[in-house]
Amino acid sequence: MNSKDVGSPYAIPQPSVPTLPITGSDQLFPIRRIYCVGRNYAAHAIEMGHDPDRERPFFFQKNPDNILCDADFPYPPLSKDVHFEVELLVTLKAGGCDIPVDEAENLIFGYGVGVDFTRRDLQAQAKKQGRPWAAAKAFEASAPASSIVPASAASSLTGRRIWLKRNGELQQDSTLDHLIWSVPEVISELSKQFKLAAGDVIFTGTPAGVSSVQIGDRIDCAVEDIAALSFRVV
Question: For the segment 92-113, what is each residue's pLDDT rounded down to a tens digit?
Fold first, then answer.
């Protein structure tokens, strides 16, 4: 046994904590959990064959180590239909349960932009069989993400454009005003189902225009005046 391991309470080497860089800082944002909001733009709900009317939001999770930062996206196994979904990211500096909407913004550490990659063929199969989506959503490197911009340094989210280009062609283009559930409402609703805490990352939903990627594709995406992200599919 290595001398530095003497007295360690862990039976195996302790896993590293997944992190995201913070714009303008040498510090890192440690990730506790990743929550994703399903169908939070009406046009995307329609394109996926669902009713766009406002209904209580539903959530699923990715794993913290699914985050991919400053790296290209490796095309995953077991799928021939991997879709991009650009999303505003919200990170939390505090949490709790049953958080009132008017207090939710006080919990926000910062914002970023990310892509919720989905093995759509596996998701469709899981839906048909009434099974969970974990294999379709929570696979390795399925959550490329930008640096986090502290809320104190970010512009207002009102009217901010969110977009994604594949190989230079615009695929997704909307504004944050089209969120069915606003960011404070998402935080409030999520806190009714889970105890939120500092280190949580929330993918807030994707606009219409999702489509598949192929090896060699280049992805560029951004939330206007907040954050940008670029990578290739390899």
Answer: 999 999 999 999 999 999 999 9
Whether 184 contacts 17, CB under 8 Å: no
Q: How far is CA 207 from CA 87, 119, 163, in A?
A: 8, 18, 8
pLDDT digits (tens, 9 = 90+) for 180-191: 999 999 999 999
Cα–Cα distance between 229 and 203 in angstroms, integer? 15
d(CA 119, CA 105): 32
Token pair listed for 184: 């404070």
Helix-strand-coil split of the chain, %, nearest 5: 20, 35, 45
From the list 75, 105, 85, 101, the residue with the least C-alpha distance to 206 is: 85
- pTM of this structure: 0.93
